[in-house]
Write a structure and sequence with these properties.
The protein is α/β, with parallel strands linked by helices. The protein has three domains: about 5-220, Rossmann fold; about 230-385, P-loop containing nucleotide triphosphate hydrolases (Rossmann fold, 3-Layer(aba) Sandwich), CATH 3.40.50; about 395-470, RRM (RNA recognition motif) domain (Alpha-Beta Plaits), CATH 3.30.70.330. The chain has 17 helices and 20 strands. Bound molecules: adenosine-5'-diphosphate and magnesium ion. Adenosine-5'-diphosphate binds next to helix 3. Adenosine-5'-diphosphate binds near residues 34 and 66.
């Protein structure tokens, strides 16, 4: 068992990007982004991937896997050739959007590289039109990519890099056959890069079928223990859900991810938290894409205190600034436990990992402790003080403006409207997210009502808009 504690961004064994054979333009982009040292997965995979090898790389969420495949595919790209040269398969649209954004950031030194996201849930026709205009890189979900291939709207003859991102999650979601269909129709002399957080059997099966002598990279899933403060609370099953509220009122984290083992438990917890006046939302696979977007936006911009989710629903989400992770149910798999709590205590922030353990969960804690080499710190619910009667309220409120990318609204237009005519200060405005049909802006809680009034009375991008607080 590996006992070394490793922070994905630690500098102990860090190596600089300047060691790599990257163009001067790419080197300066990396510097501008503040990417000075490679993360461990990048240091392990980039030399091989840039050397043209096929790779299977396993590392936890947030370890910098996107750049590990984006740099090799961008390096090989010929911007003057108007054909799809690289394709990234992702399990969900959110992840495809995140990957697209990260590749765009990394590609900004190169001229006019077109990156297209192709996911289900959006209409085909605009995607077909964009494909006709030519794209260099395609990022999408397997089902939709397959649709385009079958219709003949996606030509992959010039493809030289195929990436499978979050491969384990795609397998969980039943995409094996779709991935096989897509991979079989890509040119055989391509490079294939596969990234995954865990290594289930299906991964090896995919690799045997579609990869050429892949190099395997596996990083131990460990976190720097002093950043994540972990505590275990013994509860009876009857008090478990109520206890989540007690933890929240005691620790008062601004953003908390609460993990349940089942969807049913997520729903029950949401009810209990709402009854306690806590701003909580949940994420699950049955939701419409638009609702999922709204939930993620509200959580990321700090206008929702708690996001309740199962492991499947939360996989791959890149949420910075998470003060706490609560294991409402302890997971039977110690690797999943380590993965869950690694969501907090990122970068230079400290985070709480709080676990509620029922009488039958004890043996799970033993195997977690054995795996991490830490002695579990037990606490009693009775220590949680509830004297501070002030309710836990998120600092921000999300305003929804009807009108988004389709109306060509940009974040700057909304910021301009709020700080210009409406007269608010930059500090009172938080994150702004533009989706196809709506724009979401976070504002500090006490100006929310006034901000809705003034935005509705004024104009955004020269037009009157409909605004409401969520
Ligand atoms: P993963 O795919 O492994 O979950 P991401 O590729 O989404 O991880 O990266 C996580 C975060 O770390 C992103 O916000 C990304 O911009 C940032 N990041 C990636 N590589 C570096 C680096 N070398 N230095 C600093 N930040 C980085
Ligand atoms: Mg990723």
């Amino acid at each position: 068992m590996n006992d070394t504690i490793q922070n994905p961004f630690s500098s102990a064994s860090a190596r600089s990007f300047t060691e790599l054979p990257l163009s001067p333009g790419m080197q300066s982009t990396l510097q501008q982004l503040g990417y000075l040292m490679m993360t461990p997965i990048q240091a392990a995979s980039l030399p091989l991937a840039l050397g043209g090898h096929d790779l299977i790389a396993q590392a936890k969420t947030g370890s910098g896997k996107t750049a590990a495949f984006a740099l090799p595919l961008l390096t090989k790209l010929n911007p003057r050739r108007f054909a799809v040269q690289a394709m990234v398969l992702c399990p969900t649209r959110e992840l495809a959007d995140q990957v697209t954004q990260e590749i765009r950031r990394l590609a900004r030194a190169a001229d006019n590289i077109k990156i297209l996201t192709l996911c289900g849930g959006s209409t085909m026709r605009p995607q077909i039109a964009s494909l006709e205009h030519g794209a260099h890189i395609v990022v999408g979900t397997p089902g939709r990519i397959m649709d385009h291939m079958e219709r003949g709207t996606l030509n992959l003859e010039a493809l030289n890099t195929l990436v499978l991102d979050e491969a384990d999650r795609m397998l969980d979601m039943g995409f094996y056959d779709d991935i096989a269909f897509v991979a079989k129709r890509c040119p055989t002399d391509r490079q294939t890069l596969m990234f995954s957080a865990t290594y289930p059997e299906g991964i090896a099966r995919l690799a045997r079928q579609f990869m050429r002598n892949p190099q395997e990279i596996k990083l131990a899933e460990q976190h720097q223990s002093n950043k994540i403060r972990q505590r275990f609370y013994e509860v009876s099953n009857e008090e478990r859900l109520e206890a989540v509220g007690a933890l929240l009122r005691h620790y008062r984290p601004v953003s908390t991810l609460a993990f349940c083992n089942t969807k049913q438990q997520c729903r029950s917890l949401l009810e209990v938290l709402h009854a306690q006046g806590i701003y909580a939302l949940t994420l699950n696979g049955d939701m419409e894409q638009r609702d999922r977007d709204q939930v993620l936006i509200q959580f990321a911009n700090r206008s929702c205190s708690v996001l309740v989710a199962t492991d499947v629903a939360a996989r791959g989400l890149d949420i910075a600034q998470l003060e706490a992770v609560i294991n409402v149910d302890v997971t039977p798999d110690p690797e999943v436990h380590i993965h869950r709590i690694g969501r907090t205590g990122r970068a230079d922030e400290e985070g709480w990992a709080l676990s509620l353990c029922g009488p039958s969960d004890r043996h799970r804690i033993v195997s977690i402790a054995r795996m991490t080499g830490n002695v579990p710190e037990w606490h009693a619910l009775s220590e949680l003080k509830d004297e501070d009667e002030s309710p836990l309220v998120p600092p921000m409120v999300t305003l929804q403006i009807l009108g988004g990318r389709k109306e060509k609204i940009r974040p700057g237009d909304v910021l301009g409207a709020l700080t210009g005519d409406a007269g608010f200060s930059r500090e009172q405005v938080g994150k702004i997210a533009v989706t196809d049909f709506s724009t979401y802006v976070a504002v500090v809680r006490d100006i929310a009502r006034e901000a809705v009034r003034r935005l509705s009375a004024g104009k955004v991008k020269g037009k009157t808009v409909k605004v409401r607080a969520l």
